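> call design_seq(struct)
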C-alpha cells in the first residue's frame, strides 16, 4: 500500500449486542471485500463489561453468524492503538461490544490516484447519519417520494428545438 495508488481510508464503529450479531451484515461486508470494493486494514473488536471496563476481544470470540475471520487476510491488527480503542469503548454500552473497521475504499483508488497525479488532494471527508439526511429530505420535499429520480416532463416551450428526448 502506498500513497500514490491508495484510495481514501475510512472507519466505522458498529455496536454489537450481547449474544453477538445475527443476520447477514458481516457476510455482506465479506462480499464487499471479495468484490474488491473495500480492503480491510484493521478490524478490532472491543467489549465493555458490566462495570464499564473495556477489553480487546478476538474476532473469533465474537459470535457472528456464518462468518469467520478469513476475509481479514492481510489486515493488520495494530493500526488502532489502546487510546483509539479506549475512546471507542467509552461510546458503547456496558455488556456490548463494538467492531472497529478501518478500511480502504479501493473502488475510489483510481480517482484518488488521478487527483493526486494532477496536483489535487482530499482535504476533508465526512459521513452524515442516514437518519439526519432522510429527515432533512422529508422537510425539503414535504414528504414527497424523492428516492426515484425525477425527470421533468418534456416542454417544447422551454426548449426551442422541441421536446427533450425521454
Amino acid at each position: 500500500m502506498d500513497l500514490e495508488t491508495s484510495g481514501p481510508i475510512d472507519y466505522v464503529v458498529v455496536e454489537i449486542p450481547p449474544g453477538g450479531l445475527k443476520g447477514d451484515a458481516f457476510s455482506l461486508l465479506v462480499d464487499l471485500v471479495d468484490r474488491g470494493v473495500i480492503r480491510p486494514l484493521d478490524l478490532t473488536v472491543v467489549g465493555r463489561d458490566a462495570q464499564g471496563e473495556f477489553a480487546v476481544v478476538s474476532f473469533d470470540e465474537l459470535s457472528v453468524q456464518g462468518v469467520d475471520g478469513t476475509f481479514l487476510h492481510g489486515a493488520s491488527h495494530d493500526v488502532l492503538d489502546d487510546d483509539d480503542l479506549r475512546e471507542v469503548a467509552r461510546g458503547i454500552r456496558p455488556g456490548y461490544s463494538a467492531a472497529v473497521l478501518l478500511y480502504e475504499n479501493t473502488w475510489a483508488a483510481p480517482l484518488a490516484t488521478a487527483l493526486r497525479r494532477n496536483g489535487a488532494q482530499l482535504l476533508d471527508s465526512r459521513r452524515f447519519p442516514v437518519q439526519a439526511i432522510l429527515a432533512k429530505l422529508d422537510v425539503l420535499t414535504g414528504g414527497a417520494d424523492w428516492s426515484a429520480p425525477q425527470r421533468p416532463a418534456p416542454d417544447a416551450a422551454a426548449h426551442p428545438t422541441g421536446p427533450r428526448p425521454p
